[in-house]
Every structure is written in structure tokens, then in C-alpha cells.
């Protein structure tokens, strides 16, 4: 048999052999084609019918090679390193998808917390909402919320047991985790500055974190996202508190308006009934106030009212309350006071007002006041009884010549 006839079948299936050896497709196809031409030339005496029979086989083998070899790189073969690189890329993509899902969940949680806190119209309403947000976002129940007003931090809400309040002025302006002994706790404390973008820090939130549920970088990211949302909610609550305080206080004298004062007096009655404590009420009237308005004008009268209100506010304790009862009349509540002590306090107020020089457009004015004093429970068991007793004592002081203190 002619040797060329034996070689032609091998040439025909050479593309398959090249693909099985994972040679580049171009190399396998070109090698097969070159082999056919070379051997056909060398074995020129091969019968045409044999060559025509081998040619379709070679074409089919080449097409099969091209079809099933598409997955291989055009310029080379797939190696173990390439497969490992693909596996790592797939794992990285899965990690990115999981991180995106976590970010979405966190964003929804922060949005829900911000919406709940923004709906609070007072600092009292904010407390439970902040506690819920801290629990949901940081898996913690212990926190301290500060507001910084006029550069001074003031604690607004406090949950849990804290050895000592963290020093607000020693921490940076960015969210961070502070570890003991920088804080006097036994667990890390997450510091969250409360500030709107581009604004000064308006507060701070300290949260105890265990570090078990989330990694610290994730906690810091959550804190950075929460801070501006909390800033807007806190600013809103502080604004409503300021408006509420303004609505409770007289704009001219900065003392309590009549109804808020009576509400405070009613609270003291409840406290006195439960704890069997005593307290006193002072009714104060500026002597000859109508003459001041008629002689010097209403601006001078307003100046007198403003100064008397300031004296009252400066002279009482934090537990006391001063209010404008109407016109030129003021009232002062003295909790836990005995009758003799109330008379001495009233006399001190009378003397201080008498000694005050009040500047007006017409020069300095001096005024005097008459004061009536009533004591609970001797003067009555209701708000109306006590107010009536103090008012009667005030009129006795006026009838006795004004500028004096009279008890009920």
C-alpha cells in the first residue's frame, strides 16, 4: 500500500488532535492544512478518489474543532492560574453583592430611624426614638445624648449605667470608636458627632458597643451616616423647645405667663398633698404704677416692668418660679418654705426693688412694691384658695401704706 494513503487519515483528523492537545486553534488548523498540501505534493501518486474521500473528513474535523474550542482563549490555553483567577473574581463579585445588600439594609434602617426622630416635636419625644435607633443600628441599649448650645454641652438623654460621662470637648469632629482607658468604661464607646453638612457640631451621641455583632469600621460608617440625620432631628426638637419656652414666658419681663405659672402652682399642690410639704405664694404689686405711665409714658412703664421681672428671676432659686399675673402684678412660688422664711424672702425682694435705679428716657426711676404672702396648707387646700389669700394680704399691705410685706 502506498505510504501516502496511510498518512492521509492522520492528516484528516489532525485538527482534532491539535484541539485535544489544547493547541491554539489557528495553529491546529494551519498545521493540518499545511500537512495536507505538503503530503499531497510528496505523495503525488495518490489516487484522486482517495484525496476526495479524505477532504470531507478533514473539513468536518476542522469544524468540530472550531465549534468545541470556542471556550479557549484565542491567543493561548486555559491554565490552572486562569481558573483560579476566575474563581477569585467570582468570589469578589459575590462579596460586592453581599456588601451592597448590607448597605441597602443599613440605609433603610437609618432612613427609618431618621424619619422617626424627625417626627418628634420635643426632646422628651426624641428619647424613645433615639433609644430605638441605637438598639436597631448598633445592637446597644446604653447611650448618652448631648446638645451643645452656645458652646456648652448639656446631657439630654441618658440610658444605661455609665461610670462617668465622657468629656465631649476631647473628641474629634468625626465618628470614631474610643477604647478604654480613654473612656472610663470597660467596653469601647462609639462617638457620633451630631452636625449637619457644613455646620458646626450641635451635639454628640456616645454609644456603648461590644464589637461582637459588627466590625468597628462598619459601626463608624453607620455613625457617619446617622450623625447628619440626628442633627436635623435634634435642631428641630431644640427649636420647638425654644418656641415652647417663649410661649410660656412673658415677652417683656421674661417671667412665666399667668397660666403656665398656675399650672406650676397646681403641680406643687399635688406634691404637697402627697409628701406633706409646705410652700408659699407671694403676690407682688408695683406701687403707683399708673402714675408712672401717666407721668413718664408707657416706655418708662415697660422699663420698670422689665427691671422688676429681672430682679425676681435673679433672686429666686432654680426650684422657685416667678410669673406675671397681670398688668403690674407678679407672683412668686417658694416650694418647701416655712411661713417665717417666706416673709424674710419677701422682705428681701421688697428692699432690693426699692434700692434699684431704673434708667428711662427721662432719667432714673425708683419704685416700690407691696407684697402679700400666703402659705400652704394654712391658707387653703386649692389653688384658688391660696391665690385669694395672697391677694387679700396684698390689699392689706396697700391699705397699710404700700411698700411693705403682709402675711395672710
Notes on the structure:
The protein is built from twelve helices and twelve strands. It is an alpha+beta fold. A hairpin with an 8-residue loop joins β4 (about 190-195) and β5. α5 packs antiparallel against α6 and α9 crosses α10. The protein is elongated, with a radius of gyration of 45 Å. It starts with a helix and ends with a strand.
Q: Tell me, what's the shape?
A: elongated
Overall mean pLDDT: 79
The low-confidence runs, each spanning 5 or more residues with pLDDT under 50, are: 70-76
Measured between the Cα atoms of the first and last residue, the distance is 146 Å
Instruction: Say how many strands there are.
Output: 12
Determine the number of helices (DSSP H or I, runs of at least 4 residues): 12
